[in-house]
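Worked example 3 (structure in, sequence out).
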């Protein structure tokens, strides 16, 4: 291996999932050509996949529960290469709860080939009537027969309505899944993003819709475990080190300046910060001329996600997770890491409610929101009514995800935004052009793409993200490309 002084220095600004994925990709494939430094502003790496310490119990809890799906092959691959395959608990079925109907189990067939493995699932959703179920079947068929190019510029709700989906069907089925997956309702989301969810996430392959839940806090998974592996591979992860500026002159890279006055020389920079902060890293007029859209990224609309942390004096359900329908509450999690830590304090039982696209909460107080959520939980989990809520915490991030609107989809930048004029610069982050919505999978893909851009700019063979679960012959015949 070459000495560190002979290797090109890649500075990754941002230690979220995208930045960590980029670092891992670079040192796995070309450690002889590059040394890598990651600069993270927070005390713990992981970015928006973060956690906090509850002052009363001492538990480390995620701000908002993150989940993946079986179709997230790049995220799964990253964790596997880091020896963390056991960090995700896999669930092959979901249960939907409506306040006025029996629970509905969503379990795809294990013997029918995709996409027929979903054939019986819609019929088992008890809260839908026959007309609504038939609408959904026709809509899904039309969707899998439409290529993503045919859906460019389409808003999901408009496309669904034009293909026979009633307002009730959209509210009770399509929006239940889309809002959770995209952080945005069908009224705003692009139909291209919606297709990604339903085709890649459900129809394309068996196992695609499996739910994967981290068995430890995200700050532990990414900030300790993944960072620990990267450190062993030679990556320098520097937390509590905010990058203030990427210093350039007439478009040429000079250094990365930190907020505490350090000047870090670099040959390549990967900016892996969120869309609403990336423009602040540059003040060279030449960069603005070469990348005229740079200042527009901060105007991408954001969508909030809220996590309601609830501590009861007794269990309200033994289910690890549940999907709620026609309620403000969307998901309930009996936190896996909370289960482990419950032994430390058996008098408290922790649950988390997740509300994606939580715009409707903006006009309500936190106490009003908690009261509504408790009422909804009581309707589907009766033990809630006799349980005492010992304490609660409501956490909302207004910039949880970018809003996957058609106008935004068209503006998402490529990982190498100006390969000829700015060969030293790559962009990463789930908001870049990954083909995925705002997810951990999209973040990992963006990191791999950015690493590939670094390789190309250094005259090395590039690398592509994993293409996803392999489709069978029937899925290849039935699903439009």
């Amino acid at each position: 291996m070459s000495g560190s002084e002979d290797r090109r220095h890649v500075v990754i600004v941002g230690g979220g999932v995208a930045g960590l994925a980029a670092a891992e990709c670079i040192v796995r494939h070309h450690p002889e050509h590059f040394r890598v430094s990651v600069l993270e502003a927070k005390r713990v790496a992981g970015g928006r996949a973060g956690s906090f310490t509850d002052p009363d119990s001492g538990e480390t809890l995620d701000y908002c529960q993150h989940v993946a799906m079986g179709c997230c092959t790049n995220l799964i691959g990253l964790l596997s290469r880091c020896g963390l395959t056991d960090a995700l608990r896999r669930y092959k079925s979901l249960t939907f709860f409506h306040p006025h109907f029996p629970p509905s189990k969503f379990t795809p067939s294990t013997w029918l080939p995709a996409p027929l493995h979903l054939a019986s699932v819609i019929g088992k959703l008890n809260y839908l009537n026959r007309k609504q179920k038939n609408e959904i079947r026709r809509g899904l068929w039309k969707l899998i027969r439409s290529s993503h190019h045919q859906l460019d510029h389409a808003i999901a709700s408009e496309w669904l309505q034009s293909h026979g989906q009633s307002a009730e069907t959209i509210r009770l089925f399509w929006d239940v899944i889309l809002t959770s997956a995209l952080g945005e309702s069908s009224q705003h989301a692009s139909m291209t993003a919606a297709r990604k969810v339903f085709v890649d996430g459900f129809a394309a392959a068996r196992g695609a819709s499996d739910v994967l839940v981290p068995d430890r806090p995200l700050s532990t998974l990414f900030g300790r475990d993944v960072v620990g592996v990267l450190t062993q591979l030679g990556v320098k992860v520097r937390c509590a080190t905010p990058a203030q500026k990427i210093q350039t002159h007439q478009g040429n890279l000079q250094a990365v300046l930190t907020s505490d006055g350090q000047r870090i020389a670099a040959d390549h920079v990967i900016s892996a910060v969120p869309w609403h902060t990336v423009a602040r890293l540059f003040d060279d007029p030449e960069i603005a001329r070469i990348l005229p859209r740079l200042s527009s990224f901060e105007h991408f609309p954001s969508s909030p996600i809220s996590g309601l942390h609830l501590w009861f004096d007794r269990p309200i359900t033994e289910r690890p997770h549940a999907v709620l329908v026609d309620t403000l509450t969307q998901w309930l999690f009996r936190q896996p890491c909370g289960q482990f830590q419950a032994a430390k304090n058996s008098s408290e039982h922790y649950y988390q409610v997740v509300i994606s696209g939580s715009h409707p909460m903006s006009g309500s107080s936190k106490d009003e929101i908690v009261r509504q959520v408790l009422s909804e939980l009581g309707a589907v989990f009766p033990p809630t009514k006799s349980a005492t809520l010992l304490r609660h915490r409501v956490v909302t991030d207004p910039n949880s995800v970018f809003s996957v609107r058609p106008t935004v989809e068209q503006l998402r930048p490529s990982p190498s935004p100006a390969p000829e004029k700015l060969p030293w610069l790559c962009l990463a982050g789930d908001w870049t052009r990954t083909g995925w919505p705002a997810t951990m999978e999209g973040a990992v893909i963006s990191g791999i793409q950015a690493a590939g851009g670094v390789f190309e700019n250094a005259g090395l063979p590039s690398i592509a993200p994993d293409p996803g679960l392999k489709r069978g012959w029937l899925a290849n015949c039935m699903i439009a490309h």
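Notes: The longest strand covers residues 389-402. The chain has three domains: 4-48+217-300+404-457, 51-71+83-89+302-402, 108-209.
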